[in-house]
Amino acid sequence: MTARDVPSGDPARIATPRPGDPALARLSLNQRTTARWSLPQAVAGCVERGIGAIGLWREPVAEVGTAAAARLVADAGLRVSSLCRGGFFTGPDPAAAHRDNLDALDEAAALGCEVLVLVPGGLPAGDRDLPGARARVAEAVAALAGPARERGVRLGIEPMHPIYTADRGVVATLGQALDLAEQHPANVVGVVVDTFHVWWDPDVAERIARAGERIVSYQISDWITPLPPDALLSRGMVGDGHIDFAALTRAVRDTGYRGDVEVEIFNADVWAADGAAVLATIARRYAEFVAPHLGADR
Amino acid sequence: MTARDVPSGDPARIATPRPGDPALARLSLNQRTTARWSLPQAVAGCVERGIGAIGLWREPVAEVGTAAAARLVADAGLRVSSLCRGGFFTGPDPAAAHRDNLDALDEAAALGCEVLVLVPGGLPAGDRDLPGARARVAEAVAALAGPARERGVRLGIEPMHPIYTADRGVVATLGQALDLAEQHPANVVGVVVDTFHVWWDPDVAERIARAGERIVSYQISDWITPLPPDALLSRGMVGDGHIDFAALTRAVRDTGYRGDVEVEIFNADVWAADGAAVLATIARRYAEFVAPHLGADR
């Protein structure tokens, strides 16, 4: 896999950075990018490729158990850049959602992870009351702020591309996420900046600047055309699409963000490809499109 | 088709309004909703169903010729609520796009149509410069304002759902469309409010109020889940999805808008259904979800 990238087929423009290359310093693999890998496989893949951080998901963590997962990651020397995911606040049983989010906070703390990503949730079936659903998100975040502070975990509200407003995330812009987050201390409630979700926003630069120290996670994937048929699997490999990673990365850098950069790609072709080859492509694309614009290392 | 709707299969909640029913007074059929119909078929369908207006598309108009199309529509007693579409300003040949838009303005004037809908255009292949493309749209609209005024046709900038930012419309919000329109007189450059494109926007109510007299067209279709696989054919029948037509229609009404309401649905199932049955469903859904919130007739 030296001459061509997976899965885009584009010729590689630069050599794949080797483990230890400073260009990989802040790269993190979000587990969903290699969805077929178990947690031990993902950890081993990161170590082999020289990726120093991992964004964990609750389901594969649960497969091995939280304590075992924490040991596995720590023994491998990996940072945990975030835990995905809490949230889903808009459904018919807010109390159950709250309890599940408390569990997620406990898991994040046990994993040594400082950030719980919150996917707000969509509209229940047949529901047309978008302002109502948004109000429920605000209430649920408020209820979770105290428990998060107690556990030393920051909540990251993830604004989602409007393609997901109906079924996944009623918080549709970074500005709206900040309106919610700013009701709480910055060290308790922040926002997630995911290039796929925010790139189209005419006000994205101003909103990233406004986010400032509230950016708890910077996630990257591309917007490709034609859009893949399954909206939930429509993200592209970094560099395959229309997103200006240089501009967005500089905007995030200029807030003072010094955290990891998670590659999170939901895409059937990426999932079908060989995991190690995907990681090689990620490392190369990250070094080409993102790392040069990140500024000082963490 | 009295007991069930096409194409949703939902039971009808109200009787299909008969021709002459005041509930249909401002309903317009956008031609793309019955994409398999020729212009003569669409005109006949409107007359039979008692739909008093039609939103024309340039391609089917060209099939019969502009003058013949104008006679056909006038003889049927139909209003022409809009002509779709000009725009596509962001490509490699702005001069050619300008000439084509002049032709579209001429066609609108000849058809007795006061509104030319502008679809801004997306990013050229391989292009990541979204601000640059947006600047090209602003320049192109400015160049078209004079010719539009001369012909007595209003330009309607259509903000498009962010699902189309990359490949169809770099103007992603109603606020952004208004920023462009407000550089020109309100009787020359306005905006199109299409429920599918704007419903997700946390600021949509304020932006519709800001639009005021600049709303040159109000178009309706629904956001359905799961989203159909072809992004360009992802619109749903009014009432089948998550859009709150009551709230959006009242907001448009409160600006003083007294124009027609175009049903514009790009959807493979709708296109495959019998045209007359689709029009019956449209009439019923419009009477149920939209007409009660429109206020005074035109």
Task: State the main characteristics.
homodimer; 298 residues; alpha/beta; TIM Barrel; eight-stranded parallel β-barrel; two-stranded antiparallel ribbon; 11 helices; 10 strands; 39% helix
Element pattern of chain A in H and E: EHEHHEHEHEHEHHEEEHEHH
- Using a beta-carbon cutoff below 8 angstroms, give the protein chain pair with the largest interface and the number of residues from each chain: A-B, 32 and 32 residues
- Structural class category of chain A: alpha/beta
Strand content of chain A: 15-25%
Query: What is the number of independent domains of chain A?
Result: 1
Helix content of chain A: 25-40%
The number of E-state strands of chain A comes to: 10
Task: Tell me the overall shape of chain A.
Answer: globular
Measured between the Cα atoms of the first and last residue of chain A, the distance is 30 Å
Side-by-side strand order of the widest sheet of chain A:
1-2-3-4-5-6-7-10
- What kind of assembly state do the chains in view correspond to? homodimer
The average pLDDT value of chain A, as a whole number, equals 95
What is the CATH topology classification name of chain A?
A: TIM Barrel
Give unreliable regions of chain A as ranges.
none
CATH homologous superfamily of chain A? Divalent-metal-dependent TIM barrel enzymes
Radius of gyration of chain A: 18 Å
CATH class categorisation of chain A:
Alpha Beta
Query: With helices defined by DSSP (H or I, 4 residues minimum), what is the helix count of chain A?
Result: 11
